[in-house]
Amino acid sequence: MTDVGRIDESSGMADYIESPQNARIKATARLRDRRARKQSGMILIDGARELMRAIDGGIEVVEAFVCQDLLISADANACVVRLKNAGADIVHTSAAAYGKLRYGERDDGIVAVARRPTPGLDSLTLREDSMIAVVECVEKPGNLGAILRTADAAGVTAVIASDARGDIYGANAIRASLGAVFTVPLFEATSADAYAWLRAANVSVFVATPDAEASYTSALYTGRFAIVLGAEASGISDVWRGDACRAIGLPMHGKIDSLNVSATAAVLFYEALRQRSAASSGLP
Amino acid sequence: MTDVGRIDESSGMADYIESPQNARIKATARLRDRRARKQSGMILIDGARELMRAIDGGIEVVEAFVCQDLLISADANACVVRLKNAGADIVHTSAAAYGKLRYGERDDGIVAVARRPTPGLDSLTLREDSMIAVVECVEKPGNLGAILRTADAAGVTAVIASDARGDIYGANAIRASLGAVFTVPLFEATSADAYAWLRAANVSVFVATPDAEASYTSALYTGRFAIVLGAEASGISDVWRGDACRAIGLPMHGKIDSLNVSATAAVLFYEALRQRSAASSGLP
Predict the structure, then answer these.
(1) How many CB atoms lie within 10 A of CB B154?
(2) Where residue A283 falls among pLDDT bands split at 50, 70, 90?
(3) Which of A238, B49, B164, B248 is a plausible cystine mate for B216, CB 3.0–4.6 Å?
């Protein structure tokens, strides 16, 4: 006896899984565990919006589990069609089987297994005016996600997660980024390797630190440059204190002694963008 | 029989509660419910850091429940001393009783009951160069908290939560603000009242909207002005579409169609600050 069956070949309906105990459901649910994702080289993507971004970003989606009763929006159904066209295996499930796969209380009706992107920095080609963001040791996946969302909006060329502590493709990072984790070129590296690569590529390095003497507004964001952001608790590592690095800070006028790292990122990315737009338009 | 007793008068030790069933513990735990807070006019503040900000901000802390085993940092103990000096009733509790009061998994060792601030806009005096932030219909308390934290840093004069949907003094808002909810002058009003007040006070009104034609960098943040931020889902209400309002937007260069409201707030507050610093220093 099997509970997987191709139930309607002629109409293009895909596989259907009824039982929450199904082996394929169980194997997929195990990918909620970070170590299982690491070992298998696969990640989970929840929700139609995030999956659309993944397809846009060229992520290889292997299979998608769909609970039709929850998949009510036109967007969600369009997403299933796109996934099918992209070669993903579509598996319809009962609500009970879907319940084993869903993330927390999310009821998107679609969860997919995708191959984890592992691009190396050597695959990144820079323009003369590329803006890079380095996010070191980010502890909270929500912060990385928020930074990626802002990096997408501000036209950041690439984000390097250096010495990352959490899984940059964990559910919270994907969610907080609204899927920008897939649309912004994203790299993982040690801080030492990231620094060496930036220097070799002739990239100016601005390091956001609360104790900087120079204001971020006094820096000139021209040519190729990188903005380095550190963890709120531990601060920036010594890698980013070398002579080639310029420390910049935001003025703090209040009683709280630090900004959230994603707020800092937003201010810096948009100041760089403002300077560039002003320079290209000839306005001050 | 009572489980409340003054256990060591001479050494200054305060009341001690052993039982999680104690009436005072139960009454305090009920304040986790928003309606109970509203009815009583009281709020709960978790953690030494947030309580220090509350004292700094002149909030009246009525009583504080302390679990000594969890209160290990010097900061936390300094906080208890400050609370005592400010006239708060200090109640020591067992771990079990404290467990009924704690918020989620927080183990700060201190939870306090404070009087909810309810200042009216008529109590707000503006300078000639005051910067006001209006946050309309914010759905996520974490976003309001993040905006308050950035407002504190950027020297925003006051924040008006207009048509607020959540409790601006809920645990998540307080936590996300790191206590800035108490250090930045914060007002609640309907959007209509807030708009009328701003107009009467001769405040220029800039409204952040994704569909604005004008870039936020083209606005001149001089004199008294307000920056209005709307909910991500529902957008800004029609109150803020009048002739006296100027719509401004951030350039969006990516695939995601909106920025997080707290990222937008950070960019706008710091651009206003940058313009002012440049104007006062005579630099471009």
Answers:
(1) 27
(2) low
(3) B248
CATH 1.20.120.80 fits A4-115, yes or no: no
Whether residue B250 contacts residue A270, with contact meaning beta carbons closer than 8 Å, is answered with yes
**How far is A50 from chain B, CA to nearest CA, in Å?**
10
Q: Could you tell me the fold of the domain covering B121-281? A: Alpha/beta knot (3.40.1280)
Q: Where are the domains of chain A?
A: 4-115, 121-281
CA distance A116 to B94: 48
Token pair belonging to A157: 């060329």
pLDDT digits (tens, 9 = 90+) for B205-232: 999 998 899 999 999 999 999 999 998 7
CA distances in angstroms from B100 to A250, B16, B20, B183, B230, listed in the order given: 40, 15, 6, 28, 36
B175 within 8 A of B46, measured Cβ to Cβ? yes
Which residues on A lie below 8 Å from B265 (Cβ)?
263
pTM above 0.80, yes or no: yes
Q: How far apart are CA B21 and CA B70, in angstroms?
A: 20
> CA of B176: which chain A residue's CA is closest?
A260
ipTM for the assembly: 0.91
Residue B50's φ and ψ, nearest 5 degrees, are -65, -35
Average pLDDT over residues A8-27: 78
- Chain B: residue whose CA lies nearest to A49: B256
**Minimum Cα–Cα distance from A216: chain B residue:** B274
Which of B49, B130, B150 to probe the A interface (max A CBs under 10 A)? B150
Task: Give the tens place of pLDDT for each residue, A254-268.
Answer: 988 889 999 999 999
Backbone angles phi, psi at A54, to 5 degrees: -65, -45
Distance CA B51, CA B82 (A): 10
